[in-house]
Amino acid sequence: MLNIFRRGLVSKIMLGVLAIGVFAILITGFGTDGMGGLGGMAGGATGDTLVSVKDEKVTSLEMTDQINRQLARAREQQPELDIGTFVREGAYEEILRQLVAQKAMLAFAEDIGITASKRMVDGEIASIPAFKNLAGQFDQSAFRTALQREGISEAQLRQDLAATLIQRQILLPSAASARVPREMALQYASLLLEQRSGTVGLVPAAAMGTGREPTDAEVAAFYRENQSRYTIPERRALRYAMIGPEQVAGSARAAEAEIAAAYQANQDKYGAKESRTLSQVILPTEPAARAFAAQLAGGTGFAAAAGANLIAVEKQTKAQFTNLTSPAVANAAYSAPQGAVTPPIQSPFGWHVVRVEAVERTPATPLAAVRAELEAQITQRKQAEALGALVTRIEDALSEGSSFEEVARANGLAVQETPPITATGAQPGVAGWKPAPELAPLLKPAFDRAPDEDPAVETIVPDQRFAILTIGRVLPAAPPQLAQIAPIVKADLVRRRAAERARAVATALVAKINAGVPAARAFAEADVRLPPPERVQARRVDIAQPNRPVPPPLAMMFSLPQGKARLLPAPGGQGWFVVHLENRIPGDARSAPGLVQATMSQFQRFIGEEYAQQFGRAVEKLQDVERNEDAIRKTRQQLLGTAAPQ
User: Is the same domain home to 200 and 167?
Assistant: First the structure.
């Protein structure tokens, strides 16, 4: 809510642009709220030292590992993002800054004797949801599976968690000390209730006409100035070989003996069944039970004799009734004929007298009737086992150095290759091309890996279909030749010029409105025919709701002085908005104590985050930080693929 007051005041780390979290942060959920919960890096990293902070070092391999991890996370939102763009846009410098801050914090902790014990780390591991089974208990198998999926060792995880716990101990006290006076929160809460009204008008570029025909030279100049907008993302040709049930179908059929054994093992499902409807009485003593039996023998009906003690049991098997009573009671009730009454029998609950009201028998299901079902189940199980064994053999062969082609040929797999495609599966310049359906799960791993990485087995459908994947050609991001897209560039230039003419018209409108001409009149008197402006009204709190997009013109209205107008570009170059604030009604939050309290809480959190950041920066200044600029530059060049050959 209060982000509206502090835009531009928060660092990248607090906005979560590049929050280094490593595996521990991603799965525990702590450490991403600005309280310093940023785990240490994987242990054992070597390579050139980029920065030294006392005994702590940031190495080139550690830096490269973090760049790759953060790129993979960024690609979840931008699948076509390549490492070159990622580094050039500032990720390298930001991640390096964060790593140095982490090392400084760990060095400071060592100086003052703050540590994270093995017991503390064990407690964090046991609390991580990804490591628990369905019963909510720590599961060693789930633990190993999750580590393998994330590509991190137990030692690395423990080091990450220990670093996180250390930083939490250092930063939480400063973050938790923030306090906000109620009167201060009242002023900001009142701002949230402020109401503004005005007009928003659009000057569409389409209303400006096409204008003069651009010359070839003008089109070429426009293309040179705007090459980035025409750049095609990195493309990769994927080579893959599918692995599925068809590879093991011949060796995974159900034998007759297996079908018969499965039928016998499932007699509870297929065998003959008997269920009974019973009435029973449970009495506390044997004399009471025998007195009840004597009443029945004297001609009193069971229900009449039982009265309120009658217990009806509807259609239960012997096993079900045994669970309710005891084996002795169930044996007696299920050996008696319909209409009979059992003698008193003792169980842990008391003395039972049971009457058999009805007997219902279901004949056994013959093997022939369920043979197809059992055969399909057995075949599916055997295929899954055989497929798992095949995948394991293929993975072993790849890990031992066999090539993609050798493994495919040895296992009779058909090799397929795509044309160069983007991370979304598109083939730029080829209209109507669509990737095969099985290719979709391979796109992310194909673009997450390094181009020269060894082939690997990827999962298409868990336990059912896999693929060996390797990378063929890689075409770096680059703009096409102008001749290939000249009509597109020319159309863009025409639109650009129309937008510029629209801006000139909108600028003139803003000047007239700011000179005192009503917005509706200014639009009506424009040199071109324009749609009339629309009236808008809102409170500031309406544009501060989380997860609710706010129209930019409405947001701008809350930054204007009363009576003033301003320009705002419409999305997609469609033209220009003219936003005019006519009236402003101040808010008063004294009648909204809940809003004041929420404002206090949010300000305390924001201020706590600022305290933690400032403390972290102060800690870093206390440390002896040595930067190896040559190594920093070399590692950056290597990530960009432009390092000088050795």
Answer: no
Q: Which residues contact 129 (CB under 8 A, 6 or more apart)?
A: 27
Question: Which CATH number covers residue 130?
Answer: 1.10.4030.10
**6 and 137 co-located in one domain:** yes
* 456 and 486 housed in the same domain: no
The two three-digit tokens of residue 81, written as one number = 């993002």
Q: pTM higher than 0.70 for the full model?
A: no
Q: Is residue 455 domain-shared with residue 504, that is, in the same domain?
A: no
Q: What is the DSSP string of 22-59?
A: HHHHHHH--S-SSSS--PPPPTT--S-EEEEETTEEEE
Q: Tokens standing for 472?
A: 């063929």
Residue 209 sits at φ, ψ, to 5 deg, of: 80, 175
Measure CA 423 to chain center: 18
Q: Which residues of the chain, if any, have pLDDT below 50?
A: 1-45, 642-646
For residues 381 and 262, is the Cβ–Cβ distance under 8 A? no
Strand partners, 203: 576
Query: Could you read off the pLDDT of 397-453 as tens digits, one per residue?
Result: 999 999 999 999 999 999 999 999 998 888 887 877 888 888 889 999 999 888 889
Q: Report the alpha-carbon distance of residue 334 to residue 326 in Å, rounded.
A: 12
- Indicate if 466 and 489 belong to the same structural domain: no
User: Is the domain of 211 the same as that of 281?
Assistant: no
Structural domain harbouring 499: 194-232+482-586
Cβ atoms of residues 457 and 391 within 8 Å: yes
Number of structural domains in the chain: 4
pLDDT in tens, 565-578: 999 999 888 999 99
> Could you tell me if 326 and 392 lie in one domain?
no
Nearest one of 177, 178, 170, 156 to 36, comparing CA atoms = 170
Residues 283-315 as b or e (16 or more Cβ within 10 Å = b): beeeebbeebbeebeeeeebeebbeeeeeebee
- At residue 20, the pLDDT reads 41
User: Which of 418, 447, 475 is the last residue in one of the domains?
Assistant: 475
Could you tell me the CA-to-CA distances from 631 to 54, 408, 488, 620 in Å, in that order?
18, 41, 43, 21
